[in-house]
Amino acid sequence: FETDKPLAAEVLIVDIGQRTATLYNPQRKVKSVITFDAMEQFAEAVAAKVATGDPPPLIRFAAAPEFERVWNADRNRLQLQSTLLTYGTDLATPREMTAVELYATFADAAAQLNTLDGGMPAHARMHLNRQIAQASKVPTRVTRDTQAGQLTSNHKYAWQLTPDDLELATELDRRVDQANRVGFTDYRDQRRR
Q1: Cα 188 to Cα 184: distance, rounded to the nearest angstrom
Q2: How far apart are the C-alpha atoms of 181 and 110, rounded to whole Å?
């Protein structure tokens, strides 16, 4: 394994068993570990603040979403529609049904982490994650449409790790273990410099 092999600018490791998300920056050799509980509490605090404040309509909606659900079983396509925010998802039945709950947990954590990092309230995306899980599916593609434009995320699943995957995971574990641990605010502030 090439120890100087470049990694992404930032790596997110979601440990569902430990209920933590670790952000790791290989260039700076720093990491920040955030518990699911801290992310959930922050997301709820944001939603409560939005409910009592006067935020822009999209932010208010994202904190307390009300979608029209459109399911196309023939195309395995789920849409959650509103005038402010629409999600479209292409879905697949996973090879392992445990992937349904694992994906939902991962996607909730990622949405809450985005909120913690200054993004929209997580509740709209978490609502989508629940709808996907209730359909016993995982997404292969997710689009988010707002007046500002469209974002698309493509999802690929590997049902078995290759020897290269295991080697990369081992090396990543080693690097993350050696990284300097900082609080999330410090991590975020260093990223923005």
Answers
A1: 6
A2: 20
